[in-house]
Amino acid sequence: MPATPSHTHNPAAEALRERILAVSGELPRVAVVLGSGIKALEDLVQGGSISYGDLPGFPEATVAGHQGVLSWGRSAPDGPPVLVARGRFHLYEGHGLGEALTLVACFAALGVRDLVLTNAAGGLRADWRPGDLMLVADHLNLQGVQAGFPGATDAQDAAGLHAVEPYDVAWRGRLSRAAMEAGIALREGVYVGLLGPSYETMAENRFLLFSGVDAVGMSTVPEVARAHSLGMRVVALSCITNISITPTGAAETSHQEVVDVAKAASAHMETLLRAAIAVAPSRQG
Q1: Which residues are catalytic?
Q2: What is the DSSP string of the chain?
Q3: Model confidence over 161-204: pLDDT tens digits?
């Protein structure tokens, strides 16, 4: 199902559309958002890039490990056109919900159909290790906001906010098989979106673990809800950058540690992102 066009004028999308068509001649069908410290898809062919600051209405990316650049091109000569957002906007930066969803609104206005989200997350499973990658099967929204489509019908909002399967099941299955074929261990689990920017206490970690959560982060969930309400198909990958629970209590971490581990795991993330693009729903006919 094609993405539903935005109900509002989107100057950033119009400027980006003009730039992409002038350089590449074809608009992207797949978009990727890279989370903190994740470096991937640096060598797109037949493409270009633009800074967030050069797009009208785009906020500034202020968090370390977020470049604030949109790139476009193909991940392979025979691959589909792809748009890569190198950094996102978080609620904890002080952005309102509309600003935090700037990327998704822009993607929808461009007609993007398939969205791949990545994030850096803390792991709650004792047998997991920093650098592990997790395919998000479901999520908990504990950010205190809902992200349906403003001005949409109640039915459209419900589709985005209360989707039983917000992460495309068939796409996840194809990506899992691709990971296995590439020899990459890909975990699967539940992600929780917290507001941040503080990390979790031991009591919070235990509560989340009891609630069935596998990974903890501060993004992604509003983007998924908005994208789903706009008709996009979504998959998400978490890079486990730290283990939040140890035998002696809550583990200390820092944003720099998160960025460093994400960078180290980027080679496997690169392989999975290329696979996700190759088996995206819009390529299945």
Answers
A1: 36, 66, 90, 92-93, 120, 218-219, 242, 255
A2: -PPPPPSS--HHHHHHHHHHHHHTSS--SEEEEE-TT----TT-EEEEEEEGGGSTT-----STT---EEEEEESSTTSPEEEEEE----GGGT--HHHHTHHHHHHHHHT--EEEEEEEEEE--TT--TT-EEEEEEEEEESS-----TT--HHHHHHHHS-S--S-HHHHHHHHHHHHHTT--EEEEEEEEE--SSPPPHHHHHHHHHTT--EEESSSHHHHHHHHHTT-EEEEEEEEEEE-EETTEEPP--HHHHHHHHHHTHHHHHHHHHHHHHT-GGG--
A3: 456 789 999 999 999 999 999 999 999 999 999 998 888 888 99
